[in-house]
Specification:
Number of helices: 8
Order of helices and strands: HHHHEEEHEEHEEEEHH
Number of strands: 9
Protein name: Chitin-binding type-1 domain-containing protein
Shape: elongated
InterPro entries: Chitin-bd_1, Chitin-binding_1_CS, Endochitinase-like_sf, GH, Glyco_hydro18_cat
Largest sheet: 3 strands, antiparallel
Structural class: alpha+beta
Keywords: Chitin-binding, Disulfide bond, Signal
Helix content: 25-40%
GO molecular function: chitin binding
Organism: Cercophora scortea
Length: about 240
């Protein structure tokens, strides 16, 4: 079963220690639900496309990607006229002109036939010439295919070290702030209601977004879905 957003946030509270972006967590929940093979370039590429769609809050694009991955046989081919889903189109067959797409010098180097400027998310060892960054955000793992992630498929079964700072450098004043997106209830997956926010984990909840009336300068009703969650989020304070 794919992990819910609440389970992911609870794992942070219990001290797993690695903070994932909401988009990254949702995309990997989708990937598990679709049984994508994250040990392959194609599986990690599909997960990356899902992450981009979730980050852009594109419900239509997420649904389209989910349907394509569920119902359509995977097609990893490309050519001079057929674009890649992600990456560079590598060396083509001498007879058919068809190739497969990927990242790094094998696909983006001298033998590349189209979209040769594509770069991987991170550098697994083939150099910054082929990568957008040498490291992944939050020091998570860079897979052999150049994608960032935290599962064994990305980390080669090596546990990633959580980012840490010395006690003297900490400036949080013991505040742990949760970021709650009210519109998440409209997503096809990865939904989280206020009551799912783990108690005892956060000192503050950042409710995103609220509407300020330009005349009264008081909070106002954005829509029914937002208004019904204002009081439910503030009610959590009394339960802790």
């Amino acid at each position: 079963m794919a992990p819910s957003t609440a389970q992911l946030l609870s794992s942070l509270c219990l001290g797993v220690g690695l903070t994932l972006s909401v988009a990254h967590a949702h995309a990997h929940a989708h990937a598990h639900a679709l049984h994508l093979d994250l040990d392959t370039f194609a599986g990690q590429a599909e997960a990356s496309l899902l992450e981009e769609a979730v980050a852009e809050n594109s419900r239509h694009e997420v649904s389209k990607l989910m349907a394509r991955a569920s119902d359509v046989a995977p097609d990893y081919s490309c050519s001079k006229t057929k674009p890649c889903k992600l990456g560079c189109c590598g060396a083509s067959d001498a007879v058919t002109g068809v190739a497969v797409y990927g990242m790094g010098p094998t696909f983006c180097g001298a033998s590349c036939i189209s979209e040769c400027d594509s770069k991987s998310e991170c550098n697994p060892g083939w150099g910054l010439q082929w990568s957008n960054s040498s490291l992944c955000p939050l020091n998570v793992c860079c897979s052999n295919f150049g994608f960032c992630g935290t599962t064994p498929s990305f980390c080669n079964n090596i546990l990633a070290t959580s980012p840490q700072c010395s006690q003297e450098q900490r400036t949080s004043d013991a505040r742990t702030i949760g970021y709650y997106e009210w519109w998440n209830f409209a997503r096809p997956y990865g939904n989280m209601e206020p009551e799912d926010i783990p108690l005892g984990c956060y000192t503050h909840i950042n409710f995103v977004f609220a509407l300020i009336n330009p005349t009264t300068y008081r909070m106002d009703v954005m829509d029914e879905g937002t208004a019904s969650r204002y009081s439910r989020v503030t009610a959590l304070k009394a339960k802790q």
